[in-house]
Amino acid sequence: MRSIKRLRDFRNWCPQPSAPLSSKIKRYSMPLAAVLTVALIFSASFSAFSSNLISHSSAPVVPLVESFSSDSTAPTLLWNYSLGNAVYSPAVSNGVVYVGTSGSNIYALNAENGSQLWNYTANQEAYTSPSIAVADGAVYVGGFNNVFAINAKNGAQLWDNNYGEDARYFNSPVAVNGVVYSGAQEGGFSSFNAKNGHQIWGYPYDNQSASIIYVTSSAAVANGKVYFAESDQIYALNAATGAKLWNYSIGGDFGSTPAVANGIVYICTAAYNIGNVYALNATDGTKIWSYTTNASISSSPSVTNGIVYTSSYVGTVYALNATSGVKLWNSTTSSSGGSGDSSPIVVGNAVYIGSSNGNVYAFDTQSGSKLWNFTVGNTSLSTPAIVNGVLYIGSANGNVYGLRVSPPSLSTPAPSPLPPWSYTQLIEVTVLAAVIVVALIVLLTFRKRYSMFSAKQRSISKDGQT
Predict the structure, then answer these.
(1) pLDDT score of 252 more than 60
(2) How do residues 174-202 score in pLDDT, each as one tens digit?
(3) How many whole angstroms separate alpha carbon 402 and alpha carbon 78?
(4) Dihedrals phi, psi of 277, to nearest 5 degrees
(5) C-alpha–C-alpha distance, residues 130 and 136, integer Å
(6) Is the dihedral of CA 359, 363, 369, 372 positive or negative?
(7) HEC states along the chain?
(8) Confidence of residue 62 (pLDDT cuts 50, 70, 90)
(9) Of 305, 326, 338, 216, nearest to 268 (Cα)?
(10) What rounded mean pLDDT belongs to the chain?
(11) Is the dihedral of CA 264, 268, 271, 274 positive or negative?
């Protein structure tokens, strides 16, 4: 007996050979089969459900309207609202149109119907700039001797960094990443904290020193740099510190706000009876090319899809190759001309621009052919804004217009509520959930029974060894 006990102890102590492969397959076959069954049932049920969801007439499919294409049909007037004084360039944000007027007022209008939401009247010495900036729930405006901010929802003043008697005539501000940039026609360029209006830096002056340069344009901010015009020079400053990076000088005056695209700065001049479009290297300011037009240019260039669009003072619209400066086409706003002070804007396949002859024009971006013109009054002071197929523009006669020029954007869902799910789809979802629950119960039951069976087998085997 003692020898038999020693033999059993030796067998228990020695490592036993692993179970054969067939035993492992039997051991895991039922759980694997259960899992595969659940996966197949789930896939088939979901496929049937999703197919029905797409094809069923009451499924919640969001329709998308067609994208914009050039159309020779004149636009539809949606609304116009009279403000009494000449209206400058509008800014549109979150369904609201914000505009400034020559009467030192700022207005907020409903973008759908033109109804007034609020208006803000600046102090009697205020000089509201031709256009305003809207960002982060605030409206920023350049004034006679200040830059100030208004709450975009209710028109309440947020801050005013009044410089006192030292008149500066600040240009249209630009708001980027919590910083407001603006230059003054009677001295210097500054950046301000967008939350409280405190000056961050000034070039080349601060609040105590005398004015040195006379900024004649709004700014363009791109890739950590600020670009603006000062009489016959264009400057590039470090956007964070205000340090000068470079400046480029010409013989005439820069009459427009620069545009920056693909590492190139584009800007136009307003010399007497002649105008030039310049393309400068955005890094060092070296000239890449220039193009001479038939008259001075005070409108700002627009750069889209490798083409530069601008308009001369006599109403000629130009399209230039953005890389080489070669003219692609030019068109006139009318046989009698018309001031092209309004800067062009490109949306889809059309170039839109206002004119002093009382019309808004649309030209084809590729050929320059006129698509339509619509009479609204002298719009040379206002650059149009287009949001969801509606063009907003102000006129010198004191009106703001909303014109439907194209369908809404392709990415914008049609304004209709989603239909509720049908009873059929509700049943399909219920059945799918029930199938998954039953499959999981079966899987857990098999695992429990298999564990009990395995435990009983191990017990029998152990008893047999004993």
Answers:
(1) yes
(2) 999 999 999 888 778 999 999 999 999 99
(3) 5
(4) -105, 125
(5) 21
(6) negative
(7) CHHHHHHHHHHHHCCCCCCCHHHHHHHHHHHHHHHHHHHHHHHHHHHHHHHHHHHCCCCCCCCECCCCCCCCCCCEEEEEEECCCCECECEEECCEEEEEECCCEEEEEECCCCCEEEEEECCCCCCCCCECEEECCEEEEECCCCEEEEECCCCCEEEECCCCCCCCCECCCEEECCEEEEEECCCCEEEEECCCCCEEEEECCCCCCCCCCCCCCCCEEECCEEEEEECCEEEEEECCCCCEEEEEECCCCECCCCEEECCEEEEEECCCCCEEEEEEECCCCCEEEEEEECCCCCCCCEEECCEEEEECCCCEEEEEECCCCCEEEEEECCCCCCCCCCCCEEECCEEEEECCCCEEEEEECCCCCEEEEEECCCCCCCCCEEECCEEEEECCCCEEEEEECCCCCCCCECCCCCCCCCHHHHHHHHHHHHHHHHHHHHHHHHHHHHHHHHHHHHHHHHHHHC
(8) very low
(9) 216
(10) 78
(11) positive
> Which residues are CB-contacts of 430 (< 8 A; sequence separation ≥ 6)?
none
Structural domain includes residue 365: yes
Q: Say which range, 22-31, 134-143, 274-283, 292-301, has the weakest mean pLDDT.
A: 22-31
pLDDT band of 231, cuts 50, 70, 90: confident
The answer to whether the pTM exceeds 0.85 is no
Q: Which of 262, 247, 254, 295 is nearest to 278 (CA)?
A: 254
Give the whole-angstrom CA distance, residue 361 versus residue 434: 62
Answer with the one of 363, 381, 404 that is the final residue of a domain.
404
State which of 404, 432, 453 marks the end of a domain: 404
Q: What is the pLDDT of residue 104?
A: 83
- Per the document, the length of the chain is 466
Residues 375 and 335 in one domain: yes
CA distance 250 to 188: 19
pLDDT 10s digits, 383-434: 999 999 999 999 999 999 999 998 765 444 444 433 444 445 556 666 666 6
Count CA atoms closer than 13 A to 348's CA, side-chain side.
25
| 379 and 350 fall within a common domain | yes
Residues 239 and 288 in one domain: yes
Extract the tokens encoding 106: 């700022």
Same domain assignment for residues 158 and 20 = no
Residue 255 has pLDDT above 90, yes or no: no
